[in-house]
Amino acid sequence: MPQKADVMSAAVSLFPEPDPGDRKLVYLLQGMLDASPGFVCYCEPIWEETGPEPVPLIDLVYRLVNRPLCQLLGHSVDEVVNQRMTHFLPSVKATGLLNHYGQILLARQAQQFDFTYNADGFSGGYRIEATPLLDGLVISFTELPPPPKPAIQPADQSAMLQSIIDNSLSGLMGFVAIRDEQDRITDFRVSFFNPVCLALTGLTADYFRQRTFRQQVPPDHLPAIMAVLQQVVTQRQSTRVEFFSSHINRWVDIGLSPLGDGFLASFIDITDRKRATSRLQSIIDQAHTAIATLKPVRTNGPASDIVDFEITLANRTLADYVRTPPAPIVQRLMSESFPSYKVLGLFDRYRQTAEEKVRQRFEFHYNADGIDAWVDVQIVPLDGEVLITLSNHTLLKQTQLQLENKLSELNLLNENLEQFTYTASHDLQEPLRKVRTFGDMILDAHGPALGEGGTDLVRRMQGAVTRMQELIRGLLMYSRTATDRQPHQVVDLNTIIDDVLDDLEPVLTETKANLAIDPLPVIQGDPLQLRQLFQNLLSNALKFSRADVLPDIHIDVCETQPTDLPAGIQAPAGGFVVIAIRDNGIGFDPEHEERIFELFQRLNNRSQHTGTGIGLAICKRVVENHGGTITVKSRPGAGSTFTVYLPRG
């Protein structure tokens, strides 16, 4: 019976501490173990302390290991030595391998056996040799090669090949060369075909077996086809062709590959694809937008620089841009069809999209190669190519440029007109002041001598001068609303109304007018122009009051829906402030509601109501300067309501 070992005691080395003369032998032994092609170790057993005979084996402790075994376990030699086997192989008991080692130790007889270990991260078969030595066990093992796959018998290979051919979705036909006495290929005979061939052609198996290749091909196509097949067979070069068969009225894509002393033809029906492509081409040819796909052309290989683009698809609209030559532009280089596209910068934009996969859209003037067109260009990356669309905006651009020129001329004309109005108004003021002064001097010095008639004439002349001065002041004010525009600022309309009421206080007191004013909002605007707006509207309400009724004026802030806005105006992002100025004055006929805001429009007799006909025109200009509008509703004898729409921000 082997002696039991105490696993908790200090490990006893298999080799006692050698003297210097023996140390070389120890190193030599370890080197031999490490050089072994297999996995080798010496283990000491750990037996159960008590129990029935035979005493069961609990574990094995590694006392000596070689490096291949340590590499298999994934640890260093120092980490493995003196460790239990179950530390690295927890399943060694469950698999029955440890029990097998125990039986060998008890029998004291070496044994070789094969064992499959599928646990602890290992999966495979091992050939193990275990030899009892001293109180322990020398274990060496190697991995077994995987079992060979059963060889396919020639009969099975033939059946498998036939199954592949019969179940292929492509038509497959094999042909063997027929040669003359000089070993020249004169024809081909069919060696095999699959059911797809019969279904696609509508022909019988006997038809193919009884006819050579020449007998199956239309005579007018035969020379070209035979030349291709000669190259496939003799030069061992594969090729593909698309072919329309008038016999079956179908398009087929045919792949030709060398096969022995003959060739293999594989073909698929592409009729639907060809029809779809033709229909797509017909559709894009009808588009007024030029459409094309461009494939990058590189110097050397896929990673090299792009030097040009090949046109892989184009519609008729793009082809119409090309002046010479009139041949189809597909499969030609862009530099051949549009020689100046690199100089003008289009090539760089196309290359950027191809390399960086970015979409682009821009307006471009192509003025070269016999083309003078403004186009809206869109470039989109598409499966390694770029898709371009060119919308011709030449007429629109020409109209736009003409409008811009006309607008510039009109703006210049308006500026000159406003400058003229401002300058002329100032120049007219001085002679009018002199006429008024001279009239006063005439009345003071010669009034009695003039008599009543002469004095009346002078006063009428001075009245005309006064009206002219008011008219000029009105024109100056109207001109300033167009030329003197200040940056908008925060304006409290309540403050504006308070200032206006201070200016109108004498008239309000005289007319005993009643005012009702809602709290007004704060907006963005020009305070001077807004003050002029409300001053003109309130002055108007006071001026055109009825003689028999005290003026009653209301300033209301209204809630208005977008559907309630005047025609032709859209609300800004922040919406409108809507303010209504209502009075109970004399009013006017509704047919004049549009022209009342025009310059010099007067609806009343000057002897009854003074005015220049400029005030409401100024109101309209101020509101428009703020991005708003103004409307009026009125009836004779029932007053008027002026509604002002001003943006909030």
Automatic annotation (TrEMBL):
InterPro entries: BphY/WalK/GraS-like, HATPase_C_sf, HATPase_dom, His_kinase_dom, HisK_dim/P_dom, HisK_dim/P_sf, PAS, PAS-like_dom_sf. It comes from the Bacteria. Residues 423-649 form the Histidine kinase domain. Coiled coil: none annotated. GO terms for biological process: osmosensory signaling via phosphorelay pathway. GO terms for cellular component: membrane. It catalyses: ATP + protein L-histidine = ADP + protein N-phospho-L-histidine. SMART domains: HATPase_c, HisKA, PAS. One of its GO terms (molecular function) is protein kinase activator activity. Signal peptide: none annotated. Its EC number is 2.7.13.3. Keywords: Kinase, Membrane, Phosphoprotein, Transferase. It is an enzyme of class 2 (transferase). Pfam families: HATPase_c (PF02518), HisKA (PF00512), PAS_4 (PF08448). The keyword Kinase applies. This is histidine kinase. It comes from Fibrisoma montanum. The lineage of its organism: Bacteria, Pseudomonadati, Bacteroidota, Cytophagia, Cytophagales.
